[in-house]
Amino acid sequence: MNPQELFLSELKRLEESKTYKYETPLQSPQGGVVKVRGKKVIMLASNNYLGMSNHPKIRKAAADGIRKYGFGVASVRFLCGTQTIHLDLEKQISKFVGAEDTILFSSCFAANEGFFASLTNEKLGYETYKDVIYSDRLNHASIIDGQRLCRAETTDKKIYEHVNMEHLEKLLEEDRNKDYRFRIIATDGVFSMEGDLAPLPKLVQLARRYGALLFVDDSHAIGVCGKSGRGTPEHFNVLGQIDVLTGTLGKAIGGASGGYISGSKALIAYLRQKSRPYTFSNSLPPAIVEACKASFKLLSTDKSLVRRLHENTAYFRREIQRLGFRILESTHPIVAIMLGEASVAQDMSAALLKEGVYIKGLWFPVVPRGEARLRAQISAALTRKDLDRALEAFAKVGTAMGVV
Ligand SMILES: *Cc1c(COP(=O)(O)O)cnc(C)c1O
Fold first, then answer.
1. Where in the chain is the domain with CATH 3.90.1150.10?
2. In which residue ranges of the chain is CATH 3.40.640.10 found?
């Protein structure tokens, strides 16, 4: 077979295995209500948790960013791609999450990809050494790929069962007397398929007890979790106690793009020297930097956005259960509505779009077989009326399909 035929046969296989990813294009900005195929629909599938994606203040800041600092900087950071606004944003993030310092990346994927190898592949004065990474089974693809870049000869990689602290402790205990240089525990702050939170207090405790660095990716939590949106460390009252905190600017914080790592001054200074996606990839454009600065400022001054997100989430979680749907327990705006079979999730997502609700399903192999689900993501951009209209559609479609 030639390459084109191989691609086509793989596409055919994907389509038949029901893992084909269909894109449903929007004809409008992101928001609580969007336009799809000429029709207004309620958006329940976006990471636009705070409605910053099309917020007037954020749009204005982005436009001002272009006006004052141009469209692009045409350089990586260490050549001539650092503008004062990049340093301002880094300071602002540090202050917001309670860390000493912060380094920006073009995405959180790049941040995670850059982190692990920049520590483990460097000798740092050792001739021979071994590091070990303990990783939650459901960690994000970028954390997994980041660890793939660590050399097998010098890095042991161990997977612990999802949020299972007994299992993690057992692995740490087994390695207690081994002569490791770095021990790193890596977890998502919020897991995107279930909407559950990593048990940070226990993770902090275990990291301390076993001399490990704690790495937390708070992409789904920054701007979302905690009273003022500072993330899972605020939610669990362990602000400032996470050694390595990464996150995205592409979800609640405006939804454009960008990522960061926050940590100690020494770690961040070290990453500026050693992290390859930082050294060899372009600087964030001024429009995004200025918009993200405005976004963090808005978060710090206007508490109503996070409050509305939390109220909307509690309301939707309560009402969808009242309709008879089974959801995974959590407090996060990611609401996993459990349906079982992949075909049910697929049909229901299509039927809901017809009823004016945009929501996506997840099924094997993204989630375990027989645990297909719809994933609703609640936003502060949704009004109570939007939520009620969506719930009505759920009731109608759920009843027609015999799900409730
Ligand atoms: C979304 C997400 C990312 C990727 O963030 P980008 O900035 O879009 O690259 C990384 N980690 C987690 C846990 C995420 O949810």
1. 16-45+303-400
2. 56-301
Residues 172-214 pLDDT 10s: 999 999 999 999 999 999 999 999 999 999 999 999 999 999 9
Q: How far is CA 107 from the centre of its chain?
A: 11
What is the rounded distance in angstroms from the CA atom of residue 314 to the CA atom of residue 306? Answer: 12
- Looking at residue 58, what is its pLDDT? 98
298 touches 58 (CB < 8 A): yes
For the cut 90, the answer to whether the pLDDT of residue 385 exceeds it is: yes
56-301 has which CATH code? 3.40.640.10
- In terms of phi and psi (left: phi > 0; alpha: psi -120 to 50; beta: otherwise), the region of 289 is alpha
Tell me which residues are annotated as active site.
192, 220, 251
Which atom of ligand 1 is found nearest the CA of 188?
13
Ligand 1 atom nearest to CA at 107: 7
Q: How do residues 134-166 score in pLDDT, each as one tens digit?
A: 999 999 999 999 999 999 999 999 999 999 999
The pLDDT value recorded for residue 366 is 84
Atom of ligand 1 nearest to the CA of 140: 13
Ligand 1 centre from 254 Cα, in Å?
14
Q: How far apart are CA 261 and CA 103, in angstroms?
A: 5
pLDDT confidence of residue 15: 84
For ligand 1, mutation pick of 140, 284, 375 (most atoms within 8 Å of CB): 140
CATH number of 16-45+303-400: 3.90.1150.10
